[in-house]
Amino acid sequence: MLKINNLEVSTDGKTILKDFNLIINDGEIHAIMGPNGVGKSTLSRVIMGDSNYKINNGDIIFNGDNLSALSTDERAKKGIFLAMQYPMEIEGVSNQDFLRTAISSINNKRIGLYDFILKCEKGANELSMNKDLIHRSLNVGFSGGEKKKNEVLQIKLLSPKFIILDELDSGLDVDSLRIVGENIKKYKEENKKTSILIITHHPKILEYLKPDFVHVMNNGRILKTGNYSLANEIEKNGYNEYLNNENIMTKEDTNE
Prior knowledge:
- This protein is α/β, with parallel strands linked by helices.
- The protein has helices spanning 40-48, 72-78, 95-107, 113-126, 144-158, 174-190, 228-237, 240-255; strands at residues 2-11, 14-24, 29-33, 54-62, 65-66, 80-83, 90-94, 137-138, 162-166, 195-199, 213-218, 221-226.
- The protein is globular, with a radius of gyration of 19 Å.
- Mean pLDDT is 89; it is low at 247-256.
């Protein structure tokens, strides 16, 4: 589904991703973990087409299409969805109008109001969301948990093929994390070919969405890849082992 080849990305003259490689097949769940500032969120934004980042080298291929030639909305229509770490607030645009317009744009046809209301209410109930949030300005005055639930509501309504969760678990209390995790898990079970890329610091969300692969990232590239047990090792021991090994390798390369 997604193939990233030798990707190098910069912003404001600073290189963030370096020789980054990743392959995600249909139906797989991948998790990327690592310290702050190593390029995890940059990766999500570059896949989605954030113009603040410049691709200096490499390709991002999604189902055979080179994403560099596509705008953000075109990528969304291909089936890519980014659940943002800090969802935007848009005053004056109702959540309902935003959601209905997005669904219509993705499907290239206007969704009927009755069908839309039924889908919204079903999704809101499953997420234990206050239905009044559907009629308020997009994310304005929403709590952190309400914003994240609203991101998952969008997933339910837009039915993406590839979901990027950028620290979806940050700012969530225990109950909200459980609700969000269980809803995404259910979506994945109902859409088996859907692939998910989880960007997180903590393995708690991974208890609901057990990844097929866990990657440790630092300095803009992947240092180590393992299975779900790697996340548990990181929770227990931290990142030092992997970062120290990288420093040793870098020093050896320099000496050579």
